């Protein structure tokens, strides 16, 4: 005998009123429309860990250390998770003006915390049964953002297809995270996309459809790597994790009424089991008694794709929720966040070491690195090359995260060196270039998204005061190509080359009159370089420019340009331009002393701070950084 | 699109089993045209254990019961698997049932 059930949205609305429900039916459902009733089940033994089995964990052992994200450090201190020394450091920050509520707050919402967005956009798994892959990928994306202050959009298809799952195949986040951990991380969509059955494929064949997994061969250099994930069974610990670490995957039973969930807190009013589903829990609200979740059915469901489920409802607390920490970001995701001689790699315990190359005398180049944990000491690595005529440009590439160095030689050419990660050796990539590159200058050097692996793009100032573009297709025969000369009257140019989201190249150079000018390459119209806006005055060194996370409201939005350049009095001017807001170039601050030039700049995993390395007039390298309180003078690193 | 022709006597039932893709946001909806008093459609229990043990995201069986009503009536029932917030999307799956209710004699 079929069970009785509401038939229409109007009947469901009446039922919600009758049962005193705290949620409402989606507004897109008219009263006369039928309420959706799909079906699926979720039972113990489907490779999900019951919460009771996961039990409690030692949070202090897992996350009892300062985070690169200073907000999280303060939250961990508030929970008593830090050592006395670390807690004192966090407390000192609190005394400086940041209030630290003791214990757990009544609500957490990772959509916006401390004035920053932390979650990638709501996605749509349609039409495949891949909610589990979306939950896992959402977890990796959000933790990359929270731990390293970078948007790192991931591909659900990488794990879904890597597991050889068909479109209709179910799964669970634990299996997905196991695969990600064991297979070198989770790649970006351009390496291997999430794909769905081709249009026109009959419905009865769609569930059996499977994409043949063939990621680009530089996958090892474009994955966010993970270590062990954590299964949390205790609800109170799940909330503490949400407060002090980040989001959690969660699975639950879906009942017939769930598909009508709009605003409010969902609790079950139907007895008809409709399926099993996985989402990303991105917060909680004790006052409302609910979890906040990010679904993967597009923005049309619930409220912009986000919904709320009451604690304990529909088995959401029956299964362990999975958390992640210790994400290790790929150089591709960070490619716009650094310029010049320094970048942040995934090396080190906290996967946030700074890597730097600097001229070391006698034409040699010295590799330096800074550990990502206190006391943040700089150390020397190996040295290489023998013909460097200026400071090198340094970056990480998608070649298995190799380090790549490029410098102007004493003979006015360019020479490429790379550190082959797989064998731990520096190799000479050969010389190329104009023959009249400006001695002592630093080239702009990036990996673009033309091709896979992406081309290397280089711009260097030449002795005639012009700029010369060179590029290499990163495939056989590996030859460098002369992209031609452009501009004139260029006095200084260096590490200030960025590829925009519309794929064209932007750079800023200092002119002989002391002003700066943006140049951009018009890719759709013959790859012609065109002059842009002129700004500033009195600049006597090469500008150094990155695209930062400021202004990047989501993973698709361009962040601000941040530019630093030294002037004649030895001080550094910081300039910025709002790429998304349309704000023109504005000078932010002037800082430093005895600076000859800015050799490198990055935005890393330290609370959106800007980090700058300068070459001083005494030929010493020094670190400066900017946090919410302004620019600070850091340590002297060493000679260059 | 599959089309089924069904002949039922008054009061007789027919159970239609369809793949439910609820974990992807899909629901089956139906629309009766022709003689609207030819049949009633109810969501049925798919059977003991239906959906139990399935992994999150998997399709599970859904059952719908048609009960014939007025003798001599004819109706066409269109089942469509859709996502309600996205009415502009084509249905994932569709099935047509042409139902004829026999005269009582």
TrEMBL record, chain A:
One of its GO terms (molecular function) is cysteine-type peptidase activity. GO terms for biological process: proteolysis. The keyword Hydrolase applies. Keywords: Hydrolase, Protease. Gene3D superfamilies: Cysteine proteinases, Fucose-specific lectin. The keyword Transferase does not apply. Belongs to the peptidase C1 family. This is Papain family cysteine protease. It comes from Streptomyces lavendulae subsp. lavendulae.
TrEMBL record, chain B:
Transmembrane segments: none annotated. Residues 10-94 form the Proteinase inhibitor I42 chagasin domain. InterPro entries: Chagasin-like_sf, Prot_inh_I42_chagasin. Pfam families: Inhibitor_I42. This is Chagasin family peptidase inhibitor I42. The lineage of its organism: Bacteria, Bacillati, Actinomycetota, Actinomycetes, Kitasatosporales.
């Amino acid at each position: 005998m079929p069970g009785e059930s509401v038939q229409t949205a109007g009947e469901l609305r009446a039922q919600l009123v009758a049962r005193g429900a705290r949620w409402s039916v989606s507004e897109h459902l008219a009263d006369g429309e039928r309420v959706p009733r799909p079906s699926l089940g979720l039972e113990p033994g489907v490779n999900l860990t019951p919460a009771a089995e996961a039990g409690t964990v030692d949070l202090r052992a897992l996350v009892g250390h300062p985070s690169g994200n200073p907000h999280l450090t303060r939250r961990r201190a508030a929970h008593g998770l830090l050592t006395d020394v670390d807690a004192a450091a966090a407390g000192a920050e609190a005394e400086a003006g940041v209030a630290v509520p003791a214990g757990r707050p009544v609500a957490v919402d990772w959509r916006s915390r401390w004035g920053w967005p932390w979650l990638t956009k709501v996605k749509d798994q349609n039409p495949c049964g891949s909610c589990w892959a979306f939950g896992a990928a959402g977890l990796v994306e959000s933790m990359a953002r929270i731990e390293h202050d970078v948007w790192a959009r991931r591909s659900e298809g990488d794990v879904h297809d890597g597991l050889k799952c068909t479109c209709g195949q179910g799964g669970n986040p634990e299996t997905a995270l196991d695969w990600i951990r064991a297979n070198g991380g989770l790649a970006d969509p351009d390496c291997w996309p999430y794909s769905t059955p081709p249009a026109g494929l009959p419905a009865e064949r769609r569930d059996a459809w499977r994409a043949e997994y063939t990621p680009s061969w530089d996958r090892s250099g474009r994955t966010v790597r993970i270590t062990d994930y954590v299964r949390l069974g205790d609800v109170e610990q799940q909330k503490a994790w949400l407060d002090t670490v980040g989001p959690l995957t969660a699975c639950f039973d879906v009942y017939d009424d769930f598909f009508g969930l709009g605003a409010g807190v969902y609790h079950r009013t139907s007895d008809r089991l409709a399926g099993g589903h996985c989402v990303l829990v991105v917060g909680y609200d004790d006052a409302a008694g609910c979890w906040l979740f990010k679904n993967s059915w597009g923005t049309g469901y619930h409220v912009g794709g986000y919904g709320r489920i009451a604690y304990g409802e529909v088995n959401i607390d029956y299964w362990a929720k999975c958390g992640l920490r210790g994400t290790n970001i790929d150089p591709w995701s960070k490619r716009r966040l650094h310029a010049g001689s320094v970048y942040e790699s995934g090396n080190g315990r906290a996967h946030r070491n700074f890597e730097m190359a600097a001229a070391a005398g006698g034409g040699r180049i010295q590799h330096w690195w800074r550990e990502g944990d206190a006391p943040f000491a700089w150390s020397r690595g190996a040295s290489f090359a023998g013909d460097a005529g200026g400071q090198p440009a340094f970056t990480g590439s998608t070649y298995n995260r190799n380090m790549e160095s490029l410098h102007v030689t004493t003979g006015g050419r360019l020479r490429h060196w790379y550190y082959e990660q797989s064998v731990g050796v520096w190799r000479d990539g050969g010389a190329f270039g104009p023959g009249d590159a400006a001695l002592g200058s630093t080239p702009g050097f990036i990996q673009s998204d033309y091709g896979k692996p992406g081309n290397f793009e280089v711009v260097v100032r030449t002795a005639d005061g012009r700029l010369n573009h060179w590029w290499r297709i990163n495939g056989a025969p590996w030859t460098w190509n002369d992209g031609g000369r452009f501009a004139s009257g260029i006095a200084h140019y260096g590490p200030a080359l960025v590829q925009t989201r519309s794929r064209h190249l932007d750079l800023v150079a200092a002119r002989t009159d002391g002003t700066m000018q943006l140049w951009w390459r018009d890719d759709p119209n013959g790859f012609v370089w065109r002059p842009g806006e002129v700004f500033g005055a009195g600049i006597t060194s090469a500008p150094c420019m990155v695209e930062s996370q400021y202004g990047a409201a989501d993973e698709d939005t361009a962040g601000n340009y941040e530019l630093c350049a030294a002037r004649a009095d030895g001080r550094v001017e910081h300039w910025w331009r709002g790429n998304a807001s349309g704000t023109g170039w504005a000078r932010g601050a002037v800082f430093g002393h005895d600076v000859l030039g800015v050799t490198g700049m990055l935005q890393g995993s330290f609370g959106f701070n800007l980090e700058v390395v300068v070459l001083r007039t005494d030929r010493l390298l020094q670190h400066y950084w900017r946090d919410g309180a302004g620019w600070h003078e850091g340590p002297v690193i060493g000679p260059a | 699109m599959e089309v089924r022709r069904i002949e039922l006597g008054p009061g007789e039932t027919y159970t239609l089993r369809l793949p439910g893709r609820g974990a992807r946001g899909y629901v089956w909806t139906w629309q009766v045209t022709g003689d609207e008093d030819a049949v009633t459609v109810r969501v049925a229990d798919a059977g003991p254990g239906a959906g139990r043990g399935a992994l999150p995201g998997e399709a599970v069986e859904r059952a719908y019961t048609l009960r014939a009503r007025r003798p001599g009536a004819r109706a066409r029932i269109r089942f469509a698997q859709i996502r309600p917030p996205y009415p502009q999307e084509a249905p994932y799956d569709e099935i047509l049932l042409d139902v004829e209710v026999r005269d009582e004699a």
